[in-house]
Write a structure and sequence with these properties.
- By secondary structure, the protein is mainly α.
- 71% of the residues lie in helices and 0% in strands.
- Among the domains are: 109 residues, no CATH class; 61 residues, no CATH class.
- The longest helix is centred in the last third of the chain and has 32 residues.
- The protein starts with a helix and ends with a helix.
C-alpha cells in the first residue's frame, strides 16, 4: 500500500519514510533508504542525520545508513555524482554536505576521531557555512575539549552576528567552561538592561540562561550566586503555575469548557 502511494505521489517522502521504518535490514531496505536520502542530500537538508536518529537503535540498519553515505561520498569525490549510473554531475556543495553528514553519523556512533576528520574536510571544502562550525563544536564538546568547542562556535557566531540562536549557543558553550564573564557579554549583545543596570533575562524568564549560569557558579564554588539563579527558576515556575490556575478559574467562570480542554 505504501509503495503504491509513493508511486502516485513521488514528491511526498513521508510514505517512503514509513516504509523504511517497517522494513527489515536488507537489500530492499537499502534501496528504499537510498531513494529517500538522495533528494535530501542533493538539497543539503541539515537535519537529515538527526531526523534518522531512530535508525541507530538497530546496529544493522545504522551500518547500512553509513555505507550509503560513504558510497555517495566516494562517488562524489571520483565522479561528482551520487552513483556511478548518474549522467548528470551534482553541485560541489553536495560533497560538502556529505562530509558533514558523515561527521554527524560518526558522532552518533561515538566515534569522535572519525567525525572530526570528516567535519574538517567539510570546513576545508566550504569554510563559510555556519552549520559546519556548530557540528564541529558538538564533536569537540563530546570529545571533552570544551575550550576548543567554545572557540569553534565563536567562529560560527562571527559569520552571522545578527543571529540570536548562534549568540545563545555560544553563550551556553562559554558557561560550560565556567566562563561566566564571556557568556554574559555574549548575552548582553541582545538582552537589554533594566533601570538598575541588570540584563532583563530574569524579567523575560530566560530559564536556560539561569540554569547554565547557576551550574557554572556551582562548579566554581560560588554557591550564593548559584542559589540565586536557581531561585529565579523556581520563581518563574511558580509564576507559570499561578497563571495556569488563574486561567483555569477564568475558563470555568466564563463557561468556555471547550476552549479550556
Amino acid at each position: 500500500m505504501l509503495d503504491s502511494y509513493t508511486q502516485k505521489n513521488p514528491k511526498c517522502s513521508t510514505p517512503l519514510l514509513f516504509l523504511i521504518k517497517i522494513l527489515g535490514a536488507g537489500d530492499v531496505f537499502k534501496t528504499r533508504l537510498t531513494k529517500y536520502m538522495r533528494p535530501l542530500v542533493i538539497k543539503g537538508v541539515v537535519s537529515l542525520v538527526n531526523g534518522m536518529k531512530w535508525i541507530y537503535k538497530d546496529a544493522t540498519k545504522s551500518k547500512i545508513f553509513g555505507d550509503v553515505l560513504t558510497s555517495m561520498c566516494q562517488t562524489m569525490e571520483n565522479e561528482m555524482a551520487l552513483s556511478p549510473e548518474d549522467e548528470e554531475e551534482q553541485d560541489p556543495t553536495v560533497q560538502m554536505w556529505l562530509y558533514a553528514f558523515l561527521a554527524q553519523h560518526n558522532l552518533r556512533l561515538a566515534n569522535a576521531t572519525e567525525a572530526l576528520k570528516y567535519i574538517e574536510k567539510a570546513i576545508a571544502h566550504t569554510p563559510t557555512v555556519v552549520e559546519l562550525y556548530l557540528i564541529k563544536g558538538k564533536i569537540l564538546q563530546f570529545g571533552g575539549n570544551r575550550a576548543a568547542a567554545v572557540a569553534c562556535t565563536e567562529v560560527g557566531r562571527n559569520l552571522d552576528l545578527a543571529d540570536k540562536y548562534l549568540n545563545s549557543l555560544s553563550a551556553k558553550y562559554a558557561f560550560r567552561t565556567n566562563d561566566t564573564t564571556k557568556a554574559n557579554e555574549l548575552i548582553g549583545m541582545f538582552a537589554k538592561e533594566d533601570d538598575a543596570g541588570y540584563l532583563n533575562v530574569h524579567h523575560n524568564q530566560t530559564m536556560w540562561y539561569e540554569d547554565h549560569q547557576g551550574r557554572a557558579y556551582y562548579r566554581l564554588g560560588n554557591y550564593r550566586l548559584a542559589l540565586k539563579n536557581f531561585c529565579w527558576i523556581k520563581k518563574h515556575l511558580n509564576t507559570i503555575a499561578d497563571d495556569c490556575e488563574d486561567f483555569s478559574n477564568y475558563a470555568f467562570r466564563k463557561g468556555s469548557y471547550n476552549q479550556y480542554f
